[in-house]
Write a structure and sequence with these properties.
2 strands, mainly alpha, single chain, two-stranded antiparallel ribbon
């Protein structure tokens, strides 16, 4: 999973695990993912659809998601994305990293508050 660590190399990449989480619940097309992100309680701003698709492309390059074409009677075909087994593992790893980071942040804030009270 070394390549996953590179993919999630900085803290600005919170959208990717959010997309993986949503896809772990159900497959979706890009605009469906955008709607789910906008309705979520854990993502604090609404990304542009181009950002969603750019991140899906990166996840696909790393084989964390895959897609199939869904054709409709009217309108163009849509890419419907789903999470792969590698994507599920990357999500598990990222959540563990986030838990450790949360613990460190909690300790930092506690230390800060303690010093401020002195």
């Amino acid at each position: 999973m070394k390549q996953c660590k590179m993919l999630f190399k900085d803290n600005t990449r919170f959208l990717m695990p959010c997309l993986l989480l949503i896809l772990s619940e159900e497959e979706s097309h890009g605009y469906g993912l955008l709607e789910r992100i906008e309705a979520s309680e854990y993502y604090d701003h609404n990304p542009d659809i181009s950002v969603i698709y750019r991140n899906l492309g990166k996840l696909e390059q790393h084989e964390l998601v895959e897609f199939r074409w869904e054709t409709q009677e009217h309108g163009p075909a849509k890419k419907v994305y789903s999470i792969t087994e590698a994507g599920k593992e990357a999500l598990r790893e990222r959540v563990e990293f986030m838990k450790k980071r949360r613990d460190s942040i909690d300790k930092f804030i506690k230390s800060y508050d303690k010093r401020r009270e002195q």
